[in-house]
Design a protein that fits this description.
The protein is mostly helical. The protein contains four helices and two strands, in the order H-E-H-E-H-H. The protein binds flavin mononucleotide.
């Protein structure tokens, strides 16, 4: 799923001279593909890091990712932010 239209991404890439970081619904495969294709210098992960505190290890070891609970996102306390278990 690509949240930002490809033509907009290309326009930003062509005109912005700094390090370009994209984020938004990335998985490892699409992140690596965009980096290989030169579409970005870095890819950021947001929600996957919330629901997978061990995200890096899971990606390295090809462990399935936990999905975030949207009922506890954008809420004022820590529930749903710091209580997801590590799997690795
Ligand atoms: C709980 C939460 C809070 C966020 N707060 C901000 C924010 O304050 N400013 C901002 O630019 N983006 C904010 N974002 C958006 C993220 O920076 C990012 O664009 C979005 O989560 C898409 O990346 P992802 O699919 O990897 O989560 C927030 C996202 C989440 C889930």
């Amino acid at each position: 799923m690509d949240l930002v239209p490809a033509d907009l991404r290309a326009t930003v890439r062509a005109n912005f001279k700094g390090a370009l970081i994209w984020c938004g619904a990335y998985d490892l495969e699409r992140a690596n593909q965009d980096l290989q294709d030169g579409k970005a210098d870095l890819i950021a992960f947001g929600k996957p890091f919330i629901s997978n505190p061990d995200l890096i290890e899971r990606l390295k070891q090809n462990v399935a990712l936990a999905q975030p609970d949207f009922n506890t996102l954008y809420t004022p306390d820590e529930k749903g932010y710091t209580d997801y278990p590590a799997a690795v």
